[in-house]
Amino acid sequence: MSATRMLVLGVVFWAGKAHGYQIRAELQSWRADSWARIKPGSLYHALRKAVADELLVDTPEPGDGGPERTAYSITAAGRAELDRLVTAGLSVPGDPWMLNAAIAMLPTLSRADAVAHLSARIEALEVARSEMEGWRGGADPIKPEHVAEQAELWLAQLNADLVWSRGLVARLLDGAYSMSEHGEPPSIQV
Asked: Which of 10, 22, 165, 181 is the most buried (most CB within 10 A)?
């Protein structure tokens, strides 16, 4: 639910105000269903929950020749929750769905904050890599021996994550991407 919540809050933040269908269409155009495990029903549940948690405000509006629609806008608490979720997704390794959503929401942070959270990720990955190398090369051989392949896989994944994280930090420091430098949405069309 957290990745879905992050993406819903982020799309509403960028749009300023959006209807459920607009949020769904935007996330479908990003193919978020494949990299964040978002299903259409979970979006509407996330919207209702965010309103109940006072992260979004829902406002009824007349429909275009049809029934009334609900427009959503983000609250200050919703903006803080979005920052918290993106921060956790970037800085804490281990949840690929949260990382994927945080990458999609990266421009909601300031450049300095994004670099700081990615730097925390790098530190955590280096610790995990050191622990994995110790586990793999420990005094007691891993049994059964083919299970050692898991250590090789995990070590390769940690190394790939480190290379990618360091590269993203370098790209951000070089000025890549429009970022939310002063809490306002960057110039991203949704």
From this structure: 10
